[in-house]
Amino acid sequence: MKKFSIHNNTFLSGSIISMLEQAFSSVTSFLTGIVIAHNCTMETAGLYALVLSVSMLGLGLQRVIIAVPFNVHYPKFQQEEKRRNYRSAIMGLEFYSLLLAGIIAWIIGYTVYPQVGGLPCAVFLVGYLLKDYARQFFLGMIRVTQCLLMSLMQCFVQIGILFVWREHLTLEFILFGIGMSCIICTIIYLLPYLNISFNLNKLREAWNINWWTAKWSIGISMSDSLKNQLSVWLLKLFQSTEAVAIYNNNNTLATLPQPVFMGLSQFLLPNFSKSIQEETGKKIGVKIVLISSFAVSANLIWSIVLFLLGKSLVSIFYGTDYYAGIAPLLMCCLRGIFVSLTSIENSVLQAFQKPQIIFKILLLSIAFLSTIGAFWIYKSGVMGVCTAMMVVYMIPAVCGAAKIYMLVRGKQK
What we know:
Blueprint: H1 10-39, H2 42-73, H3 80-111, H4 118-140, H5 144-164, H6 171-190, H7 200-238, H8 241-254, H9 258-278, H10 281-317, H11 326-351, H12 355-380, H13 382-412
Helix pairs in contact: 1-5, 1-9, 2-3, 2-4, 2-7, 2-8, 2-9, 3-4, 3-7, 4-5, 4-6, 5-6, 7-8, 7-12, 7-13, 8-10, 8-11, 9-10, 9-11, 10-11, 10-13, 11-13, 12-13
């Protein structure tokens, strides 16, 4: 019998590398929050969280219009010429998307945040989007090692900039520094693959290929962003910007493992797209169960750690003013379990080309958040938003699992 080796198992090794890559991204966000909490006012920390929440809207749109369709369709092209043409056209679409995003961010920064200015907001958003595009590009081409190396470099550069200038941090400097670190590190790794097409016919063809997936995914992205950002802005409305900072840091700590599984789900999308064409439903089902079990186990272990050490960790990392109690932390941990499961399930549903199911389930979550969830936030503040968001993610996790079970069973027949 051939001895098993992780190196000759592309799926397993790629999954591990993609999780490791996202772990560094998670650590980068985590350390950034710590540096800001210790060297800036709570008002600045809250404003940074709000700017980040707005940026997530742009990130969601980019993913559904460009990244998700690329990862669904690119692995299915058989001829290298078609792959090359599609790749270069997608880069052209990304170029125009970044140009538009930069202009919009400049206008918003100049008008809504005059104390920050347009340039830092534009640089931050463009860098944020460019890095994520490069990640999705490498994952779609199953080049996860480049993805890992890029994230490693960007992590060290970003944290290095913020730490060295920690005594002089302002919101403008934070946004500009993070944005430039993303732009520079991404270009270094993306440059060997740079092949941009500005041919209108090729751009139109790529857009048409993307559109069927994108038209549902735009609704998915907007709905997903809405439920995440609505909770933050409701908390600001009913409580304060400081409450947003407290919730953001507690939630970041509690859901620390979750971005790892978000990265895994992005790697899974092109792999499941290929598996659906080549493998049996039973084999696909086994993969889903194994990955989901690992995600739940990792999150549960972290929940136990926070139950025992949560107060000490919040005080050490952010300061005692940010501690909201063990109960909110554990609610966020439960949310992290459902977020991890939902991200994996969404990749499977996208691979089955069933984005409309994701969209319909998300509408249920938004309906809950805008009614019962909003009431909980109004009555209980940070605890209310933690509980509401746990239920908001439990709904798609349960519904998505039921639908995937039916799809996999249908493929077995």
